[in-house]
Specification:
Largest sheet of chain B: 8 strands, parallel
Radius of gyration of chain B: 19 Å
Helix content of chain B: 25-40%
Low-confidence stretches of chain B: none
Distance between the termini of chain A: 33 Å
Number of domains of chain B: 1
Order of helices and strands of chain B: EEEHHEHEHEHEHEHEHHHEH
Strand content of chain A: 5-15%
Largest sheet of chain A: 9 strands, parallel
Number of strands of chain B: 10
Strand order of the largest sheet of chain A: 7-6-5-4-3-2-1-9-8
Number of strands of chain A: 9
Oligomer: heterodimer
Number of helices of chain B: 11
Structural class of chain A: alpha/beta
Strand order of the largest sheet of chain B: 8-7-6-5-4-3-10-9
Shape of chain B: globular
Mean pLDDT of chain A: 96
Helix content of chain A: 40-55%
Strand content of chain B: 5-15%
Distance between the termini of chain B: 24 Å
Mean pLDDT of chain B: 96
Chain lengths: 307, 314
């Protein structure tokens, strides 16, 4: 699993404060720790920075490249900010996060990727919004995103399609569709496009205590359909366990077996079955219930584990 | 050519919930009312018989309301000033249940007296609503619950901000509760989980998914109810509860029902329009699976009743 570490994000109070103080140590430390925890790239989201992008982006890039050699993911809606970052990057091939099929963004951002030799994450979203249906998302990739890259001769390996994970709390019907989108996208083009997702979006607006479980179960399902890249928290030890169990087909522990079984079922186009779980085990029972809400079989509620 | 109608076979069913207790059952009601029990989507008689038909509750107030339409005042007349009389007239108008809505002006003693007088004025089972402010609801509903132990009254309205006290007193005194959430399937299920997690039997909860009047969001209410019912039939235990909705309250706050003057002439006769509004709102909700509809005008009651008879006729 290629993890783009998500922890340098302006939504975090600590990041916000460190940025205000231009605290180099903080960012260097957070970047190094993510890479040590297994992140293959580091995402940087400091908000739109409409006023100070020309100063902030070179500063943060220089700071982080002092200590790590991995690709940096420039996560901003501000196109000028993206370019300011791209000009500063000296080490690995950067990732632009992101464009969508909205006309203006699709016009400009791939051109930036081309000019600076960057990869670009492209969301399966048009200006009308995000379609629910798996087919409609694949259509956006095939009819808008991929053709645009071909039009400007951006190598296909530099395109990363993000089919948009949405939260089970309020957009539950999207969750199974996203799984099918990831499955289908790999056959949408030859060579198969890279696919990445923002995993933890699946548990947005979910009470904190349930978020890691929902993320892990969804991850097992997505690995079942071949997901190999995601923006995620590399420090989540239990999530890393799930990745390792599924990647190495390690079924030595009961939980490892259960997560592997979920991935297998989804891979085969099946649904996890009651018989796959030992419901007397509280962890497995919680995982079973989580599969049911993620597949939109049972209506989500904040206290779904009590159901 | 013979056409075979495809039939769904569901694994889940709606719980049958009984409101009110006769003397044999520990209360004083002339009869009890059972709702729910369905094993298919509404009125698909070729899939499964409908074990209990939808029922109509008429809403009355603990004291004469000053903000109700004059059309309603015309219909109920002097009885509006006396809850026991009002309940009696409502029973004569065809109600299956009586909703007594308390007001902020009621003291706990007033409230208990009103409920006792209504219990003696009618033999129908009751639903009692607090005035809708958490503290006041609890202050009034707890003494009522205790004074009417065993009557199997539906106490309400439980919402996510205030349900614990109402549920606790309902459990202690053998009553039921009405659980209301803003039109959202996730929130609806969540409140049912929280209430049953307190130990309340799921045979004693009516869920109120909230709705809008015709022209004012009824389609959202309709689809939430439909989604809840589909989930229930698919086996989701926390949605397998009968549904209560309040089309009377919703319809009588729309401009079309409330206002008799200064509206386009094409809107036609005020009274006819207002009653149509309440009736059509209620029937749409009955068709989406409502088990209890709470109405206000006796003429609407008559019409909705006749629509229900047609729907349940096999």
């Amino acid at each position: 699993m290629y993890i783009i570490g998500e922890n340098i994000h302006i939504i975090s109070e600590k990041v916000k404060e460190a940025l205000t103080n231009r605290d180099r140590e903080f960012f260097m430390d957070l970047a190094v720790k993510q890479v040590e925890a297994g992140a293959k790239a580091v995402d940087i989201n400091l908000g739109p920075r409409k006023k100070d992008f020309a100063e902030v982006w070179p500063w943060i890039i220089e700071t982080i490249e002092t200590v790590v050699d991995v690709p940096l993911s420039i996560d901003t809606t501000n196109v000028e900010g993206m370019e300011a970052a791209l000009k500063t990057i000296k080490k690995a091939q950067p990732i632009l996060n992101s464009t969508s099929a909205e006309q203006e963004r699709l016009e400009k951002i791939p051109l930036l990727a081309k000019k600076y030799g960057a990869k670009v994450i492209a969301l399966t979203m048009r200006s009308e919004g995000i379609p629910v249906e798996a087919d409609a998302r694949v259509t956006i990739a095939v009819e808008a995103l991929i053709p645009r890259m071909m039009e400007i001769d951006l190598p296909m390996e530099n395109l990363i399609i993000d089919p948009l994970v949405l939260t089970v709390s309020g957009c539950q019907q999207y969750c199974p569709h996203l799984i099918e989108t990831v499955r289908t996208l790999q056959y949408a083009w030859d060579p198969a496009p890279n696919i990445s997702v923002g995993l933890s979006n699946v548990s947005n607006a979910v009470p904190n205590e349930n978020r890691p479980l929902i993320n892990r179960v969804y991850l097992a399902m997505l690995m079942g359909v071949g997901l190999q890249m995601m923006i995620a928290n590399p420090f989540d030890k239990e999530q890393n366990d799930v990745i390792r169990w599924i990647e190495t087909k390690d079924t030595s522990k009961p939980l490892a077996k259960v997560y592997n079984k979920i991935a297998e079922r989804i891979a085969a186009g099946e649904e996890p079955q009651l018989e796959d779980f030992d419901l007397k085990d509280a962890d497995q029972s919680a995982i079973w219930k989580t599969t049911q809400i993620l597949l939109n079989k049972v209506i989500y509620a904040d206290s779904y584990l009590l159901n | 050519m013979p056409i075979e109608i495809p039939k769904d076979k569901w694994t889940g069913s709606i719980r049958a919930v009984t409101i009110g207790a006769t003397s044999a059952e520990g209360g004083t009601r002339a009869k009890s009312i059972t709702v729910g029990g369905q094993t298919s989507m509404p009125y698909l008689h070729y899939e499964a018989p409908m074990p209990n038909k939808p029922v109509i509750a008429i809403e009355i107030k603990s004291r004469k309301p000053d903000d109700w339409s004059p059309l309603l005042a015309d219909a109920w007349g002097e009885a509006m000033a006396d809850p026991a009389q009002w309940a009696k007239k409502a029973e004569e108008a065809g109600a299956d249940l009586i909703v007594v809505a308390l007001t902020l002006a009621d003291s706990p003693e007033d409230a208990v007296r009103v409920i006792k007088s209504v219990l003696s004025g009618t033999g129908l089972p009751l639903i009692v609503w607090g005035p809708g402010q958490a503290e006041k609801d609890n202050e009034l509903l707890v003494p009522i619950s205790e004074a009417t132990k065993g009557e199997k009254i539906v106490l309400g309205i439980c919402e996510d901000k205030n349900y614990r006290t109402i549920v606790a007193t309902a459990m202690a005194n053998g009553h039921l509760v009405q659980a209301r959430t803003p039109m959202d399937v996730n929130l609806s299920k969540q409140l049912n989980i929280l209430i049953s997690d307190m130990g309340m039997s799921k045979d004693r909860i009516l869920m109120d998914p909230t709705t809008g009047a015709l022209g004012y969001g009824i389609e959202y209410g309709y689809s939430v109810m439909e989604r809840l019912r589909l989930a229930a039939l698919q086996g989701d235990a926390m949605t397998q509860l009968p549904m209560i909705v309040t089309p009377g309250f919703e319809a009588w706050k729309t401009k079309e029902s409330k206002v008799g003057e200064g509206v386009p002439e094409g809107w036609g006769d005020w009274k006819a329009r207002a009653i149509n509004w309440e009736t059509l709102t209620a029937i749409a909700l009955v068709e989406s699976g409502a088990d209890v509809v709470v109405l206000r005008h006796p003429e609407s009651v008559k019409r909705v009743k006749s629509a229900i008879e047609e729907l349940v006729a096999v």
